[in-house]
Amino acid sequence: MLLLFAGMTLFVMGRPRTLAQEPVQSSVPPAATRACGANPELAASAKQKHAPKTKHPLPPEPLPACLEIKGEPMEVQETLQAIARDLQWRIHDNHATEDSWAFVRYVDTVELEKYADTKVLIQPVDFEDGKTAVVVRTTDIGERWARVQVSAHFEGEGKSSDATMKQSTTSWQLNTKGVLEKEMLSLLQARFRHVE
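Predicted structure:
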């Protein structure tokens, strides 16, 4: 019995040395997404836009939301289109090419409030619904990485509730809060983490 115990002790004590000599394999999978690096195209286009000077200038239009994903540009677009189908987005005017996907997504008043800046208008507006024109651009940046850029432009449908200066227009251009763009990239990021 004592001999069996001594043999087990030697076996257990000897085991860590054997494990230490074996190469340790990382349990962390390789990164499937990363923040965008420097993008000269975005910087150049932002500098070239010179809006006319007005008394009450609109806030500058935000740059597209950006993410780099390990995958082919077409694969990234197909994944995002699958997400749109899974979430049953109300989409119209759907146009896809090898490196871009443009569509109009209809949103209800809650989504409009969440995604667009509805509080910057000169007068109060009672919104009934809205829509956003979304453009997704995918660019191959080498080594099987694709840069994904998402931009959105919003339009709200509603009537002015200002009793004094009521306008007859029912369509209102709205600035994005950047929330929809980031949500779309987060959904992509989650899908590509599960793929890797």
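Summary: Strands lie at 33-34, 65-70, 90-96, 100-107, 116-117, 125-142, 145-160, 171-176.
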